[in-house]
Amino acid sequence: MQVTSVSAANIGYQTGPKPMTVAQVLAGLKLNSKMKVNLADTAENISAGLKDLNAISNQIVQANVINPPAKISLTSAQTKSYATVLSKLPENTLVLTDSFDNLNSNIAVLRQITPQINKMVITPSAGQTKQTISPWDSQLWAKSVNGKFEIQTHVGTSGSATTPSTSGSGSVNVVPAGGTPQFIGYDDTQALATNYRGLKALDDMGMLTGIESFKGSAITASVTESKALTTLFNKYSTEFYLNIRDTSTNIAKNIDFISSNNKKVASITQIGNIKPLEITTAQNTKADKVLSKMKNAYSLVLTS
């Protein structure tokens, strides 16, 4: 890379550093290795300088791409190598192209820079028609533009999507351990509620092929989350149960939905400022069975 000459006078040492190109940053830090800089350059120049920039990433306060919508294209291995400086880029700056196995083996890094990823293009792997993923990573994989995914929520008896257990039986290619993609023992049904937006995005794009049965586990969710999850799970004939936790107002507004899903509702808990539920007489009749699952005391105001 050609580095243009930069004088000490041009660099400046003010508290709020003026934006500098890749060439100016590298030249400036040769004069003052402790200087803090703001990087602003084209996606092409930043891509070409990633190795050098990553080596001095501690001196970079922030980095910006000045020629959007241009993107920085990388493999997952490159993403891992330059993760420190890449994390300082704006959101939706990176395009990753790689096989699922390679992406998966670097998933810990991909999780950290998910906001910076604009999209992932998954190249075919021999004999692989779909990928099994944890619900914890559904928002990450929703950035892919191709591929087929199946949500895996239960393997073995212990651990979680973010902290895999080292005991238990069974393994699945979800989270790397010891350099090899594997995930031993986890029960992570609750992540389905936390990451339902990613699940919905995958499903909307036609990439979600199924959701594993929950083996009797119940999910604690708000009414909004419950609606999204019910829509998804009904498509895949997946058995699941809901512990609904929400405000009195939201429960009352959505009492028809809650009543119609009585068989899936395990419990209802009012949170926040508990108030009487304002519903109609007809709604109260239909909601009689599901309201019996209330975990705290409630009262009604019949509006008609």
Summarize this entry quickly:
With 304 residues, this protein is of the alpha/beta class.
Provide an overview of this structure.
The chain has 304 residues and is of the alpha/beta class. It contains 16 helices and 18 strands. Strand 10 and strand 11 form a beta hairpin. The protein is elongated, with a radius of gyration of 25 Å. Mean pLDDT is 85; it is low at 1-15, 157-162, 164-177 and 179-184.
Instruction: Say how many strands there are.
Output: 18
First and last CA, distance:
75 Å
Poorly predicted regions: 1-15, 157-162, 164-177, 179-184
Overall body shape: elongated
Please, what is the average pLDDT? 85
Structural class: alpha/beta
How is the biggest beta sheet arranged?
Answer: 3 strands, parallel
Q: What strand order characterises the main sheet? A: 1-2-3
